[in-house]
Amino acid sequence: MTVTTDQLREDVARELDRARRRTRALTDAVDDSELVRQHSPLMSPLVWDLAHVGNQEELWLVREVGGREAVRRDLDELYDAFRHARRERPGLPLLSPDEARRYSTGVRDQALDVLSRARFEGDPLLADGFAFGMVIQHEQQHAETMLATHQLRSGVPALAAGPPPAALVPVAGEVLVPGGPFSMGAEVEPWALDNERPSRVVDVPGFFIDAAPVTNAQYAAFIADGGYGDERWWSPEGWAHRQAADLSAPMHWRGAEGGWSCVQFGREAPLAGDQPVVHVCFYEAEAYATWAGRRLPTEAEWEKAARWDPLTGRSRRYPWGDEAPTARHANLGQRHLSPAPVGAYPAGASPLGAHQLIGDVWEWTSSPFVAYPGFAPFPYREYSEVFFGSRQKVLRGGSFGTDAVACRASFRNWDHPIRRQIFSGFRCARDARPDEVR
Ligand SMILES: [Fe+2]
Question: Where gamma-L-glutamyl-L-cysteine is bound, by residue (predicted)?
Answer without folding.
Answer: 86-89, 415, 419
